Amino acid sequence: MQKNKARIFAGFIFLLPLVKRERIHVRRQVTKIDRRTKDVKAFFDRWKIYQKAMKNNYMFHREVYAILRKFLQKNFRQGFSLLDLGCGDASFISKALRHTGISQYRGVDLTDVALGIARENMKKVKCDKKFIKGDFAKFIRKNKETYDVIWLGLALHHLSLRQKALFLTKCGKIINKNGCLMIFDPFMRESDDRREYLRRSLKVYTKHWRVLTPEEMARLFGHIKTSDYPEKFSMYRSLAPRTGFRKVRYLFKDPFGIHCLICYYV
């Protein structure tokens, strides 16, 4: 009897490290799930605001993507490639690309959730497609492919001026002959500094973005104050020859002078 007890105790001692390791493993898995759940919730909290803004055309998505479609139809008849940086759910660009001659699409975004929705939205676009998870600035530094068109929507203003210049330089090296880089982004007016831009843009959003709740508006303002670093068009124009582009021009400017579409030509 004593021997059996000793054997059981010895077996328990032997298994104890395994039990501890299993507990640690389970705890880590739960932590990962909790973190993933929080990430998904944070994504949808931000996405809810963004969806409201797009649905109500507050950032002039309809006008901008109509211009994109006509631009592609006019300048790239058949067999062009497009890199969509910060593609999000690709809801607008998928519609813009349906009646074009696109042959290859690459979408890059930070979140699996967005990429999953983008895959569904892009199903009606008949071309070779690939969706890549990653930060657009890091992706462009490591990228080896070339493209006819690079599209960047509402993301460049999150970078510093130095990072913007590096991004433009890299893009200039991977765009095919007669190709272009198209940037849809918030801009400062030529008379603005960042403080005036923030004052002016927040005034516009408060007056016109009426479907947002006070909580959503506060979250939007917090994001803009901490993350928005737009440039003036004159700055982008001065960067063109230094980053491998022939010229840059406006394709669209909203009535408030905030959201604009510009095009760099190689």
Overall form: globular
**Any idea of the CATH topology of the largest domain?**
Rossmann fold
| Distance between the ends | 87 Å
Mean pLDDT: 88
Q: Structural class of the secondary structure composition?
A: alpha/beta
CATH first level of the largest domain: which class?
A: Alpha Beta
CATH superfamily of the largest domain: Vaccinia Virus protein VP39
**Count the helices. How many?**
9
Tally of separate domains: 2
Number of strands: 7
Low-confidence runs: 8-20, 29-37
The share of residues in extended strands comes to: 15-25%
Give the neighbour order of strands across the main sheet.
3-2-1-4-5-7-6
CATH architecture of the largest domain: 3-Layer(aba) Sandwich
Helix amount: 40-55%
Please tag this protein with its features.
266 residues; alpha/beta; Rossmann fold; 2 domains; 7 strands; 20% strand
Report on this structure.
The model is unreliable at 8-20 and 29-37 (pLDDT under 50). This protein has two domains: 1-55; 61-265, Rossmann fold, CATH 3.40.50. Helix 4 links the parallel strand 2 (102-109) and strand 3. The protein starts with a helix and ends with a strand. Helix 2 packs parallel to helix 3 (91-97) and helix 7 packs antiparallel against helix 8 (214-227). A seven-stranded mixed beta sheet has the order 3-2-1-4-5-7-6. It is globular. The protein has helices at 2-55, 61-75, 91-97, 112-121, 136-142, 161-174, 194-208, 214-227, 233-239; strands at residues 80-85, 102-109, 128-133, 147-153, 175-186, 247-253, 259-265. Helices cover 54% and strands 20% of the residues. By secondary structure, the protein is an alpha/beta fold.
